[in-house]
Design goal:
Largest sheet: 8 strands, antiparallel
CATH superfamily: Electron Transport, Fmn-binding Protein, Chain A
Structural class: alpha+beta
Shape: globular
Strand content: 35-45%
Distance between the termini: 18 Å
CATH architecture: Roll
Length: 134
């Protein structure tokens, strides 16, 4: 997922993050506690995101509010990783890159749309129109 946030100078910034989703479309991700996105989100939790599957022209776009989770709340994230059949959170590159630890965020979407323009593979649902999810 590409996650967009706003710096304290009101400049847009975007980064790719690994994520998991729960049954309510909440998105969870980890980041280094010293990353720009973590710094941005602690100041302003408003985000936009794009999830895409290449090479197909299928995308989900949305926006919402990101909130840092405490250690107890972050267990939801670990449970979702296990539920999605990841062997462990240690597979995620972040844990190999983060020198000083990581934090977990939950994005509560305020809006979300779906676009599928793959008419050959999905003739019954393909369209150039966005479908409202939330």
């Amino acid at each position: 997922m590409v996650l967009a946030s706003i710096s304290n100078n009101l400049e847009p910034q975007a980064a790719t993050v690994y994520f998991v989703c729960d049954e309510h479309f909440n998105l969870f991700f980890m980041t280094s506690k010293d990353s720009k996105k973590a710094e941005n989100l602690k100041i302003n939790g408003k985000v936009a995101f794009v999830i895409g599957w290449g090479p197909q022209v299928i995308t989900i776009q949305g926006g919402g509010v990101a909130k840092e989770l405490d250690k107890r709340e972050a267990e939801t994230f670990i449970d979702l990783i296990k539920k999605n059949d990841f062997e462990s959170a240690n597979q995620w590159p972040l844990l190999k890159l983060a020198k000083e630890g990581y934090i977990t965020f939950k994005i509560t979407p305020l809006w979300m749309t779906y676009l599928n323009m793959e008419k050959v593979k999905h003739p019954n649902i393909a369209s150039s129109e966005f479908y409202k999810i939330i």
